[in-house]
Amino acid sequence: MPDAAKLRVQGLTSGYGAIPVVHGVDLDIAPGEIFALMGKNGMGKTTLLKSILGLIKPFSGAVALDGRFLVGKPPAELIASGIGYAPQEQPLFQDLTIRDNLRLALTSDRDLRAALDRVASHFPFLLDRLAQKAGTLSGGEQKMLILARALMLRPKLILIDEISEGLQPSVIDRIASALRRERDENGMTIVIVEQNLEFALAIADRWAVLKTGRIDDQGRVEPGSRARIVEHLRIG
Fold it and tell me: What is the DSSP string of 86-140?
């Protein structure tokens, strides 16, 4: 079982060109915690995830995983060090099979069988349909494939962007079950960006609302959390 990872973000400011989108964000995410980051469209949630992963170079601030500073390191090195990423945009190769899309997560075929068995424990249909082209899957099946590929390397930390968008409740339930199991059985630290409050609050330990690139409020998930979050989103 991988060691649980602690993520610390300190004073992170980043954006595109010379325009900042995220402003001085501070986050401390405990090992084995599921943390939900919420907010309206255009508030900087995806920019924050990409900045943590190194896909966007921050203007200032620090990101550390278990005390190891990440800013300036290439995304491939960060993924190899134990960070998984399931982006909102569809990163699948539509003309490749399910098997080949999953193989892309591995540097060697040596551990392919074990990795396939592991993700199939969450999404059994993948193992039954390895020869099927990814582009022929339904939208929900493609989202499950994206998540499965991010889990192939057993990351210590996984960043997940709007995984539930457009999905029917039964698929959302399967994804929620997979994430809970990864945290409970493997100690995985999980950061999810979400607009589906019911899904986010059903699995998260803590939450934060991002508004115009700043943390507007945050807290532990408890009975009054939903109303508190909705109020922040309503007045945003």
Answer: E-SS----TTSBHHHHHHTT-S-GGGHHHHHHHHHTT-THHHHTTTSBGGGS-HH
